[in-house]
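Record type: monomer structure entry
Structure origin: computed from sequence
Chain ID: A
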Amino acid sequence: MTDATASRGRWRPQAVATYPAHSVRRRTRPGRLRGAFVVVAWRNLWRHRLRTWLAAGGVGFAIFLVGVMMAFQSGIYGPWIENATSLSVGHVQIQHPDYFDDPNIAHTLNGATPLVRELERIPGVVGVTGRAEAFALVSVGERSYGGLVMGVDADREAAMFTLPAYLREGEYLPRADSAYVGSSLATNLGVELGDEIVALGSGKEGGVAALVLNVDGIFESGRADLDRTVLQAPVHAVQAAFELGDSLHSVVLKIDDPARAEVQKAAVEATVREDARVLDWNELLPELRQGIRLDAISGQVMAALLIIVVAMSVVNSFIMTVFERTREFGMLIAIGMRPNAIVGMLTIEAACVWILGTAIGIAACIAVVLPLNIVGLQISQLVEGADEIYAQLMVPDALRPELSARALLLAPGIMLASTLVGALVPALRVRRMHPVEALREEE
């Protein structure tokens, strides 16, 4: 065998060209890769402009409605609480431990004067007043009706509450023997300004208490329970007639922020004695608390239904996207692109739709809420007779929505989760996609 033949039959290693390591192992920066995905996803959205705008518009409409609804709720709850508590209840009350459940005249707070002075020094308290209350038989001539005789400090009461401002005729407790009577009670008794009125009841020690007063003022609050039963008189006259001494039945506080009533209650509890009970407006007005909770729950249900409808529209939009782009996805998988990368690209597209919708929704929400916050929405002008109904419910006649971080962030956050989930459900079909079958799919 010749050398040539041997050389033809024998394998000889060939020389391999060498290159610098950095030119062989070229690395793509993760930031550039993500940026490319975002650019591709953004361009894909505008392949079907109408569908993209419809999906973004649905997201924006949901954010707009939820944001406006929450702004109205934020705007109505504060005035609602203020209207209900500023009439006569107050934000926080200190009472005998048993008085709230059993309003007996014997359940009093002893040494109330120094307690009032201590409470005035608590930060956040803007007003303190004491009251002596007794149920009595109010009589004029042969007419008698049961009522609540409320002994008050006229100056403090007028500065803290709005009931003295509902004066229909006369003056608010100008003398030591004045009576400030509800309009319905005055009508039932047949009294007018200057008439004498007698309140008979039981004193703290069990004796008969008699209080003779002159009607110097008549009020009409629009609240039937107050106008029909309440009679206010100077606190010292009530204490003397019902043998109370320096005792009071309740010490009423007004604070700077009713929303922080529970926090302020804790500060008051640290000041009062152990033989006293502190109640905030949530406990004093349980019907108001229940009304607010019911309104909040109904708003949450409406928002949830709206978000579900919008999420279904997003799901439908991305289902159509996946079916129309089946061949495209099949080709990408065939040339080596991972299914998870395609799912990620669809997720980015969903996020871009959410960004567009959020911008539309927040802009529309601000454009509607800010003018209404300045002008106010007059309920009485929209519905005839609504002002009387809202007065009974202690709801303000003018609604002023308030923008808050909760209103501007909660709805977009929920819609982001709904949009991503809505896009992820049809996108998962890509993970089960076979390239050959996808390429044979008809457009």
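Annotation 1: DSSP finds 18 helices and twelve strands in the chain.
Annotation 2: The mean pLDDT is 81.
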